[in-house]
Amino acid sequence: MADFxxxxxxxxxxxxxxxxxxxxxxxxxxxxxxxxxxxxxxLKEREGKFDDAHEGQHRADAIIKETKDMxxxxxxxxxxxxxxxxxxxxxxxxxxxxxTESLDSVAVSLAAAEKHMSQHASMxxxxxxxxLQASFKDVGNQFHALQDRxxxxxxxxxxxxxxKKTEKKGxxxxxxxxxxxxxxxxxxxxxxxxGKKGETVVxxxxxxxxxxxxxxxxxxxxVHVLGSPSTLHATGLSNCTLLCGPVRTxxxxxxxxxxxxxxxxxxxxxxxxxxxxxxxxVSTKAIVEDCGAVSFGPYDLSYPGMDTDYDESGLDRSxxxxxKVEDFNWLASDKASPNWGVLPEExxxxxxxxxx
Length: 356
Description:
The chain is α/β, with parallel strands linked by helices. It has 4 helices and 17 strands.
């Protein structure tokens, strides 16, 4: 290890004074010590650089493994969904809703894996980043193909007869007519409100509690859903206000514009919606996709019997991620998505309603 040279003792000049000889020996000793210290520093620096490189490679390997594990978990979940395709069962609607939640879970996991990779890309070799990007593109294509096969774009097309009952007013009047609809799906597990314009629709109690509610193709309407539905689907609402009690599982909003929603649920998924305000209580992060100019504030809705509906829904009032939103069209981690925003407190709204 000590391959540095050492200054050898010089031949002593017998004619030199004794003090000169001692001085030369001292200088040799100092020089040898300095050389030894310099050599030791060089060895430590070399070892330190090796350790840093080794640690960097170790971190990169760990990130690659984590990313691949997340990707493989997505593929495994997709395989499970495919394996369950075509399984027999009497409750087709429930199966469809379970499928929707499973596909949403895959989409969330895939986005999280891609985000994990993008956040750590600077720590990985460029060839590894390109390889991972290519594999995620393949998995994404497989997922979209699976989604298109199992859930064609035209979803939640519930329809049926509608019964008008006596007109009823709430504390807030903004539409020309008020109607209460009876359940309209054959198995009595779904409630549908379709194709209305300029009306206020108020429903609640046994009409919606524990059932799947589908609301679609409304213009200039106001809808109050006072109860605890199992799920809620809102499609094609324009310039509408939808106020809903606590939903037991998921809410899906698609193709809406210039509207206001007050929603409480476990999961919220918003597709192809623009210029719309959401006042929400959600247990998980809300998801937006292909949206623009949507904004979020906290849920503040009240009506008689709401405490009972909350108890039946199973929602925890202390957990609300209203301001935490995942945008599937925006994976950059260092910049906020331009497609959604948080409403300032002065624009939060409170809704007080009468019972249905």
